Amino acid sequence: MNILIFGPNGSGKGTQGALLKNVYHLAHIESGGIFREHVGGGTELGKQAKAYMDRGDLVPDDLTIPMILATLKKQGTGGWLLDGFPRNTAQAEKLWDALKAANMKLDCVVEIDLPRSEAKARITGRRICARDNNHPNNINNPAIRPSGAVCRVCGGALSTRADDQDEAAIDKRHDIYYDETNGTLAAAHFFKKLADQGLTRFIRLSGLGDIEAVKTELITQLQS
């Protein structure tokens, strides 16, 4: 199964991605990890991307999408979950065309819907486990509130990300995601239109429930 997942920062998208990875034995591929793989591995695409990054420029889609495809192809028939790309409609269109050209099926697109105010509260309360950053800990959520300064799952040390406490940075990220004209939600809605044409599946579910409730609903819909 090949899945593309959308959700605002704070929606639990990374946590749900990690859970789906275990349930369906998928490769959980995050866009940042793709850059690290190619740049760190010294691939030809990585060398070209690094030249842009060293200048402080954005890596163009004509390099980013081939890097993504190369990584997806390495998964063979095992299936993958792509997280963090695309971020606008132009990227969504190019990714869709590239997948078709490579005869790679996109089985399902998932959008985790969460009100912007709730997403922001989750981010500012988020605490990161040193052992596994997908372990849920949030001081603003009683259901996953850590015990003191240690992870509620494994007892690992907790820390905060500086940008999680920077409200201006949070607003900037959310401005990009929640923009239904030029932002990430516009990209998600591009795939919804494809699903309406029967070209893929599209699942939208609420992220307001606890982790297990969201997981249960997501798996139920994937299996329906």
Question: What topology does this entry show?
Answer:
Elements: E1 2-6, H1 13-24, E2 27-30, H2 31-41, H3 44-54, H4 61-73, E3 80-83, H5 89-101, E4 108-113, H6 116-125, E5 128-129, E6 158-159, H7 167-177, H8 184-196, E7 201-206, H9 211-223
Parallel strand pairs: 1-3, 1-4, 2-3, 4-7
Antiparallel strand pairs: 5-6
* Beginning-to-end CA distance, first to last residue: 14 Å
Structural class: alpha/beta
User: What is the number of helical segments per DSSP (H or I, 4+ residues)?
Assistant: 9
How many strands, what sense, and barrel or not for the largest sheet? 5 strands, parallel
CATH fold-type name: Rossmann fold
CATH class: Alpha Beta
* Molecular shape: globular
Share in β-strands: 5-15%
Question: Widest sheet: strand order?
Answer: 2-3-1-4-7
Q: What do these coordinates show?
A:
With 224 residues, the chain is of the alpha/beta class. It has a single domain (2-116, 167-223), classed as 3-Layer(aba) Sandwich (Rossmann fold). Helix content is 48%, strand content 13%. The strands form two sheets. It has a five-stranded parallel β-sheet, sandwiched between helices. It has a two-stranded antiparallel sheet with strand order 5-6. Helix 2 (31-41) crosses helix 3, helix 3 runs antiparallel to helix 4 and helix 4 packs across helix 5 (89-101). It is globular.
